[in-house]
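Protein data:
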Amino acid sequence: MNSHSKELEFEKALVLRDEIDAIRKSMQEQKIFLDSPINKDVIGYYDKKTICICVVMIRRGVLTGTKNYPIEETLFDKEDTIASFLKQHYKEDFLPNKIILPFDIPEREEIQTFLANGKYDLIITPPSSPREKEEVLLATKNAELFLSSEKKSPLEGLMNSLGLETLPRRIEGYDISNIGPEIKVGSQVTFIDGKPSKENYRIYKIKTVFGQDDISSLREVLSRRFKNKEYLPDLILIDGGKGHLNTALSVLSSFDLEIPTVALAKQEEDLYLEDDFNPDMDTDSKNLLIKVRNEAHRFAIKNLRNMKRKASVHSPLDDIPGLGPKRKVKLLDRFGSIDNLKKAKLEEIQDIVNNSSLSETIFNFVKTLK
């Protein structure tokens, strides 16, 4: 039940619990377990990727307990699985008088003879009455509830696989994307409790890196992000490989931060840790990391396209002789708008353009704009 709560699957857990309670109540009302001198076990079988066999133990008419046996992998069909379980589970000293199976199996009589060994009265049988069918249903529902309760959430899986001290409730994913050397962005997406938290998404226009240099761009983005140490993540995911991971760890170290960080490469979905590579991980947990990585990439591409569309619109700066697209982008990044550029001092323009003649041309030109 606890892991159900962590996965927010309250309704399923409650339905299973209520079904089990209803079956037990029905049995009690019918006095199924009362005044019965025999000891019997009722076998339940539930299969959903992982198999669970549940044994409901009834001793002298009283339900004394249940035991669940999960089976992770088997090459057997359900009949052979039950047959193998009977042979391994039952020993002479613990044989009940009767074992009720969830369904008939081909080896039933042979196993009955083998376990009884000529010394014990033992009957192995599928349910032969409405009462026994209800008992099997109880055992089967218990097996289903056990598997549901045992299933770990993707966050628990990540915590175990990555060796984290706490659940990674807040995960931040980063991606660097570009269209040519001039238009570059870094994206930050945030997942809280495994779900996108879009109010915590951020986009960073790359300001200090020229040309296509993902590593330097990542360093800039993470440096700008972690200057602010509020709302730190429990886990950082970088879209990239070992070099991207090392860059992220270096930036965190420069801010005296120790935040678990991994890098997930595309194509082969290789996962890089500081001291490990592709650790064992369940499918749901790996898929959550892939989802975060893909969302960071999607968000970056969306913003890149918006920037490209805006850049394609004619700007008054396009009419300045000698001013190329690279310097135009630098000016707009620095001042944000033509209006702000008109207010700039000549020295400020010179700092960006690094050409005295061109700086003066730009300074005089923008003054003529209305």
